[in-house]
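Protein 1 of 2
SEQ + STRUCT:
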Amino acid sequence: MRPVLVTAGATRNPIDAMRYISAHSSGRTGVAIASALVVHGCRVHFLGSPEACLRANAIPSTEEFADTRDLMERMEIWVRANPQGWVIHAAAVGDYELAGSAVGKISSNLETLTLTLRPTPKIADRVRFWSDDITLITFKAAPPLTDGESLVKICRKQLERTRSDLVLGNVLGSLATTTTLVDDSGSEAFDDRAEALHALAARVAHT
């Protein structure tokens, strides 16, 4: 059975020595997938945020990441070492970072504070450059009120851009009830997120 890398939780892109920009992501989804795969007998390496790793008690192999670039570096190391494995990239990756070095501590007495940010690398777009033989599953969160048909279109664009084998799509505001799996052969909609995650884990475990 091929090895599996699961990423989960949110990156923390620093703005000074104490503060960072992050997303609302606990890592529960990645933990659930990785735990299910362990039960199926898969050899799983879990790469998570500090919060996500605290939830990953049932996963024997875990590793923490910090900011977006740290996550990217750790993923690249794993993929190059396991070029025919699976990557399930469920982490909430920060799209922006401070333009410049996050040095010292910004004063808390300022009346206003302006930060200049720059885009971070798109990790999902780079995985195929590390190994063309990897099997890649990525996640996409669509804006609130996105309908099912539009969600599939959004996921298909990500499928093509990242050259993913499968994209799991959700709609913000209805994460528990609006989920779809999209691959080259079509799409499958789910009214329950847990069912979608179970279907995803089963597909990985039995391939």
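Protein 2 of 2
SEQ + STRUCT:
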Amino acid sequence: MMRIFVENSIFSIGNSLSSLYRTDNMSKYWVDLHLEEDRMQHQTISSLTVYLKKVANEIRVAHRYAPAVDEPETTDMIDLEKQLDWTRWALKEDIREYRLIPCFPDRPVVIKPEFPFRVSQGAQARIYTRVPVFVRVVPKDYPDFVITEIPTVVLSNTWFGTFMDGELCYGLPTTARREIADEMFEPHMAVCTIQIYNNTEGELNFDNICLRVDRLSMYIKDDYLWADQTDILYLGEEKLCDIEMKGRLPEEAKRGKLITRARTPIRKNFAVRTFQRLREIQPLGLMH
């Protein structure tokens, strides 16, 4: 199946965001691709491979995930190109240079701690989680024009909240931990640091955390990705949590370099529902 998009406005968007994306000499995964006419190129990040092809003023993009163990691998590139599900964009100009950039998912993510979690009154806790990133495809010289975004891992849908008050999120296949471990670092995962403060006279018990990744920037250090730190001030079960996205790297990732800014610019603290217990009912049909 082939999908076609016509784009006439790319050059009315300026170069104002070019400083937000930095991949030159920074990573072997997040690269610039120079496309030769009618020749397919690809880049693999974990189990995802992204394919690009330029034909006249069109850019064609396809992707696939690594075959299952019992699925035969395609080795013939001509056959593979025919099998791929391509999407085509007709652009106003002939563009040959494209950039692959990591970005956070386009919805909040729901995180489950490794074990049932409690924070006593007045205490604080630091936890770490990994979020699978999306691959953003942009023209190198026009980085504010997003061709497409492709998840490195296909995430399940989940509902965070109650029947009357909630939101559609992604459920993460990973868990939150109290300590950093070597196995947490993979090219397609961004490590997020969360500092929780229990500012109540009671105990904070939770089974899930909802992390608003749209407000997180992404950094790269030694080929691995980090998010800026999130501080969560718990004010009680009947109140919204006070959230502060620090806008800077945690201590564990000093000297990391900015690679992608947040989807939603950080302006000030905000209050939002963050913790959930399993006793809270979730709508049927959204969990899979």
